[in-house]
Structures are given as structure tokens and as C-alpha cells.
Design a protein that fits this description.
Layout: E1 2-4, H1 9-13, H2 16-29, E2 35-37, E3 51-55, E4 58-62, H3 70-75, E5 87-90, H4 95-98, H5 116-121, H6 126-132, H7 136-146, H8 158-167, E6 174-179, H9 188-195, H10 197-211, E7 215-220, H11 225-240, E8 256-261, H12 271-278, E9 302-306, H13 307-319, H14 321-325, E10 328-329, E11 332-333, E12 335-342, E13 348-353, H15 358-365, E14 375-380, E15 387-389, H16 399-404, E16 413-418, H17 423-437, H18 443-460, H19 465-482, H20 486-490, H21 492-501
Parallel strand pairs: 1-2, 6-7, 6-9, 7-8, 12-16
Antiparallel strand pairs: 1-3, 3-4, 4-5, 10-11, 12-13, 14-15, 14-16
The protein binds iron/sulfur cluster.
């Protein structure tokens, strides 16, 4: 019997290693033939560690499993898929999972992340196989047709970026993957890198063939040691199977890939700052132009995309740009991996086509708050994303629709707060975050954020409140208009959204100091 226990960091943090050992020990004690496969996560993090058993009807799920539950699982016959108090029936029938549209995450949690045979069996490398037989410009056209836009947050059309690099002649070109994933409430990149690393490798290889690059780098944040490990191991396996390296599968194309670890600065998720860091320098933001597609890594044309953008590419090539484009609404095509976190009952990853609403995500999937209290605000798009009040929960997830209400979809991370949250404190936190993480290159962000914290402190302490609120608005305008990059430029989003959506929190009596 095959039993699956995830190796994803979220499952590990809940004791997955210990559960896997306990299952192996219990099976050997009972002289049962059990094979434990360490898979990626299915994304239902509230059920981790989610143990699955292969049966003739499909995989049956049990979770969250702890070591002490293992003997009773054996006693109740879980190896035959029998019921248990932790049982959820067939994994693919669990509504949380069933009601998703898994394109990028189609394999995550299903395959063994280190088995290239398993990857191939589930459609892996179909996209690259097609790409290797195509002209590079036709690959670019396919990606343009799909409507794919940068999943890191900016939403820039991926096809346009690739075409710029394709059209330039250069002795060396690069592909660089931004896996810095520093936004609060996000873990989609990590889940894919740990659970289906070949998918990212394949997407980057397709980009390399399209753009004419021969070397690639994945810039992973240091907080993700499991991602680094899994990627390095998968790269070795792909090299040995000639899916990376010289003359890939006899196609004449060569591409090799390397993993680099960041040192923990949020601003290194900004593409030019990431390039500086990749070159071994301090992560300072570069002036643009030149854009990285023309002068990027080591001054050479570079395709830079986020993990989720690259990981969407294999299915686009395998099934065609038109297939992918059929998902979504307006100019937001395809799917996005939404990550539901914060004060939420059922946290996890939900891949859905654009158009789904915040309310659906936090109610239908999330099941409301963990505390059981009413939801008051949801921050979407990382620490620089807007705080949405309940009145905006029905705005469809779409880059343009969100922009209309001064919010952004970003990387798809949702952080939920209940009615005990103090939004003035959250606004202060945004300014403080910017002050700590500012790279220091431009004045509005470097000085503005520090002054912003001081102004917020005065508002909270009820010192000359009306004038300081006015000052805060002014400061936000300067930061929006005058900052060099998105860190300073977007900090006003959470501040202003808190101010506009929750004004009552800025007009409370000052907290009693004694
Ligand atoms: Fe650096 Fe902030 Fe200016 Fe960005 S906005 S370049 S992080 S100082």
C-alpha cells in the first residue's frame, strides 16, 4: 500500500516527518507492506499533515494527523481507505479541493517531487517538448496569446517582456526567477518549489528557449531552506536526464540553472534590486531605464519573472495559449493561486480563475475567522496592499477592478482580520515596515516612512489629530508620486485604505497611558 505524507514546510512544521516515521514503524511492527511517498502539499494547510492512502477508488485523506493518531489509523483500517475520525473521504472530493481550477498546481501533492518519471506521467515536460520543436518567436506568441501577466504583483504582460529579450542580439542572455516571496500571507511560490520543482524548471527552460538564454538563476529567500534543497535536488535530476544542460533532448538548445539564496531584505523582491543581489552586491534598487529585458543581470538582456509566472508556462505550451486564456475575466486571464491566511479557520491555497471574490474565498473556502468573530478587514497583495472593508468584498479578483477601488491583487495573498483589529495601528505598521525595509536610495521613501511613523504616533496619541491626518495624506501623496520603486510608492495603499475604510479607528480617544 502506498501512503503519502507531505514534505512541504507547512506540513513539516506540523510534524509531518514524525508522522511519516511513526507510520513506517507501526507498519513494520504489524508486518505490513507500506511504502511511504513524500509528496508536496495539496494546499489544504488547515489539514496538515494530510496523510493520503492510495486505494482502488482514488486517494483517501486523513488529517490533521499527529503521531498519537497513527496506531488508531492502523486499527481502523486506513490502509484500505476505511473511515476514521480524521477521515475526509476521497481527497479530490473534498469541496475545498474539488471546487478549485488547478492549472499551475495540477500536479502539486499528487506526484513525488523528485521523480521525473512521475512528472512525465502527469503531463510534465509536454510543454517543453512542444517548445523545443517550435521557433522561439512562436513560443513568445503562444505566451502572449494566453494573456499571462506577471504573477509577482505588477501584472505586466509576460509575452511583451519575452519578446523584448527575444528581439535583442547579445552574446549572453539570462533568465532570472524571482522567488523572494516576501509578501505577508503568501506561500504559493514555496509550495510549488517544494511540491513540484520540475514545473518551475520546465517553465524557465521554455523561457530560455524563447528568449535565447543559456543560463538561469532562481533567487530564493533564505527563509525557504526546503525550497532551496528541493530545487537543487530537482535540478541535479533534470541535468542527469538531459532536461537541463547541453543539447537538451537532442534539440540543439542548451540551458543550465542555478539556485542563489537571498539574505532577507524585502526590497530584493523588486526586480532590479534582486539583480544587484544576484551579482553579489547590496540590494539597492536601480534606476530605470534601462529595463532589465535590455540590460539586466551582469548588464545582459534578462527575462525576469516570478515563480508563479514561470510555473504557468508549461501548461500554456502544452495546451495552447487559447486554452489558458479561456479562464478569467477582462484583461486578467488564467488562474491565480490565492493564499488565505491570517485569522482564518481553513487557511490554504486556492487556485481559481480571476473573477472569484474576496467574500467567496474567505467564506466558501476559508470558513470565516479562526476566532469565530466577524471579519472586519482583509489585506490583499502583501504588506503594501490595501485593507479592504466588508463593503468591497464582492469586487471580483481582477487587476483592473481592484485598481478602481485603490487596491491591488498582487501576489494573491489574503490576510484576514476580525473585529478586534485596530486599523490605526495597522496603518502605523505599514509605515514602520517601509522604514525598516527601505533600501535608502530615494528620499520620499527613506525619510518619508520615518516621518510617517512619527505622524501616526501623534494621531494615535491624539496630538493635534486633524492637522496630523492632513499631514499624513500629504505625505502619502509625496511617497506615491516621488518614490523610485514600489516599496515607497505603494506604502500609502495600506495607510490610505485604513484611513478611508475605517475612519472611526483614527478618531478614537487616545489610549490611556497609565
Ligand atoms: Fe529604495 Fe524605497 Fe526608493 Fe524603493 S522607494 S528605491 S526601496 S528608497
Amino acid at each position: 500500500t502506498t501512503v503519502f505524507v507531505p514534505l512541504d514546510a507547512a506540513a513539516l512544521s506540523m510534524g509531518a516527518d514524525e508522522v511519516a516515521d511513526a507510520i513506517i514503524n507501526e507498519a513494520s511492527k504489524r508486518k505490513l507492506d507500506v511504502r511511504v511517498v513524500r509528496n508536496g502539499s495539496r494546499g489544504m494547510l488547515y489539514l496538515e499533515p494530510l496523510v493520503e492512502v492510495e486505494t482502488s477508488k482514488g486517494r483517501v485523506a486523513y488529517g490533521p494527523v499527529s503521531v498519537k493518531d497513527v496506531p488508531s489509523l492502523f486499527d481502523s483500517g486506513f490502509l484500505d481507505g476505511k473511515d476514521h475520525k480524521l477521515g475526509h473521504g476521497l481527497t479530490e472530493e473534498i469541496p475545498y479541493f474539488k471546487n478549485q481550477e488547478r492549472l499551475t498546481f495540477a500536479r502539486c501533492g499528487i506526484t513525488d517531487p523528485f521523480s521525473i518519471e512521475d512528472y512525465r506521467k502527469h503531463g510534465g515536460y509536454d510543454g517543453l517538448t512542444k517548445a523545443l520543436a517550435m521557433k522561439p518567436i512562436d513560443i513568445v506568441t503562444e505566451v502572449t496569446t494566453s494573456g499571462l501577466r506577471g504573477r509577482g504583483g505588477a501584472g505586466f504582460p509576460t509575452g511583451i517582456k519575452w519578446k523584448t529579450v527575444h528581439d535583442i542580439a547579445a552574446d549572453q542572455k539570462y533568465v532570472a526567477c524571482n522567488a523572494d516571496e516576501g509578501d505577508s500571507g503568501t506561500f504559493a511560490d514555496r509550495m510549488l518549489m517544494e511540491g513540484d520543482p520540475f514545473c518551475l524548471i520546465e517553465g524557465m527552460t521554455i523561457a530560455a528557449v524563447a528568449g535565447g538564454a543559456t543560463k538561469g538563476y532562481i533567487y530564493v529567500r533564505s527563509e525557504y531552506p526546503h525550497s532551496v534543497h528541493n530545487l537543487r535536488q530537482a535540478i541535479e535530476i533534470a541535468r542527469a536526464a538531459n532536461w537541463l544542460g547541453d543539447n537538451i533532448q537532442g534539440s540543439g538548445y542548451s540551458f543550465d540553472l542555478f539556485v542563489r539564496m537571498g539574505a532577507g531584505a524585502y526590497v530584493c523582491g523588486e526586480e532590479t534590486s534582486m539583480l544587484e543581489s544576484l551579482e553579489g552586491k547590496r540590494g539597492l534598487v536601480r534606476y530605470k531605464p534601462p529595463i532589465p529585458a535590455i540590460e539586466g543581470l551582469f548588464g545582459k538582456p534578462t527575462i525576469i519573472n516570478n515563480v508563479m509566472s514561470f510555473a504557468a508556462v508549461p501548461i500554456i505550451l502544452a495546451k495552447g495559449g487559447e486554452f489558458y486564456k479561456n479562464y478569467g475575466i477582462g484583461r486578467s486571464r488564467g488562474t491565480l493561486a490565492f493564499q488565505i491566511t491570517g485569522n482564518i479557520k481553513q487557511g490554504g491555497l486556492v487556485e481559481k480563475a480571476f473573477g472569484v471574490t474576496t467574500r467567496q474565498l474567505i467564506e466558501d473556502w476559508g470558513g470565516g475567522t479562526y476566532s469565530g468573530r466577524p471579519v472586519r478587514a482583509v489585506q490583499i497583495g502583501g504588506p503594501l496592499g490595501a485593507y479592504l472593508p466588508e463593503s468591497k468584498f464582492d469586487v471580483p479578483m481582477d487587476y483592473e477592478e481592484f485598481a478602481k477601488v485603490d487596491a491591488m491583487v498582487g501576489h494573491g495573498g489574503l490576510v484576514v482580520f476580525d473585529d478586534t483589529v485596530d486599523m490605526a495601528k495597522m496603518a502605523r505598521f505599514a509605515m514602520e515596515f517601509c522604514a525598516i525595509e527601505s533600501c535608502g536610495k530615494c528620499t520620499p521613501c527613506r525619510i518619508g516612512s520615518t516621518r510617517g511613523v512619527e505622524v501616526m504616533d501623534r494621531i494615535i496619541a491624539d496630538v493635534d489629530r486633524e492637522r496630523n491626518i492632513e499631514l499624513l495624506e500629504d505625505l502619502c501623496e509625496t511617497m506615491t508620486d516621488g518614490s523610485l520603486c514600489a516599496l515607497g510608492g505603494l506604502t500609502p495603499y495600506p495607510v490610505r485604505s485604513a484611513l478611508r475604510g475605517f475612519p472611526e479607528d483614527f478618531h478614537k480617544p487616545a489610549p490611556n497611558k497609565f
